[in-house]
Model the fold of this input.
Amino acid sequence: MIQRIQTLYLLLAIAAMVAALYLPWGTFFSAEGTVYSYEAFSVAQRVGEGNASISFWGLGAILAVCIASSLVAVFFYRKRLTQVRFCIFNLLALIGFYLAYLVFLWVTVRRLDASFGLNFGISLPFVSLILEFLAMNAILNDEKKVRAYERIR
Done:
């Protein structure tokens, strides 16, 4: 199981998504000098008077589902086509994650009347997307090899 390259790709994708849950994705800077941190489950005020926060669960939930789905895919190493389906699901979910991220970013910038700066944490789901794609290709290559071997036999 662990010796297959696709398993390593999936485990690295899981690690990147878990790190993305805990790292900030961006920072909002308002005209009054207030700084907000954009994280997985909320936009929280870090600098300034008051303690404002905008709670949401959608983006963090998408990442949590992708983490669980990738973890399940690791244990389906004997069922390669099922693994491919999990990878395709994760690819589509991560693309949806970025679309939802952009929509929520646009709404929050207008609501806070603030400018925005990106942080490193938002690049980790993209790294996971690439690793999921590599895992899917490796699984499909294994499936081709197995079918060729069965055809020879």
Summary: Helices lie at 5-22, 58-75, 80-112, 124-152. The two ends are 24 Å apart (CA to CA).
